[in-house]
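Marked as duplicate of an earlier ticket. Keeping the data here for the record.
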Amino acid sequence: MYSQPNIKIPYLQKTLHIVYSILFAAFWVYTGLTTSDLNNWLLENTLTLSLIIFLIAFYNIFRFSDLSYTLIFLFLLLHVYGSQHQYPDNPFGEWLKQNYNLERNHYDRFVHFGYGLLLTYPIHEVLAHGFKLKKLINYLLPIELILSSSALYEIVEWMVADWVYDGGEAGMNFLGMQGDIWDAQKDIALAFTGACITMATAYLLRSKNNASELS
């Protein structure tokens, strides 16, 4: 069984949480001040703001493990860096494209893969502590939630691009399609793959620990 972190420990006594908060806030402000497209930055960060509000609102109700907070922190950095420029122009993706002769800027693929890889375990913790579901469901449902939320995100992203950019070239850049008509499906598949890797790893490690305790 999982041991939920002590929610009675105040935020100011959690050094790791304070460090993550300061680093993320500084990086978030930096990307906003240096973005090449403020409108795109604001749109992309609606997800960031929603997740931050959730974490703050439930901090004294549900406390994640330090591992989960680390995974969430890494995903937020990954996403916010992506919002600094439109995905087809992301500097790191451009560096990879030029040095490895890639056909496109793949940074958006990293973010979608990271969504599944990094956020599935925190979801798993919520289900294990908050809902106390059966063991198998605790491992399968996070994958299903990542898959369904990825599909929902692609739908919402398309609606925003059509509404804000009138479906023009700027909208295509916002979507990060780069001429790939299967971009949305590939993004969903990458998030699903990342989620499967995380849950498979968590299951194997948990089974190994349980076997060690019994031996």
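See parent ticket for discussion. The chain has one domain: 11-214.
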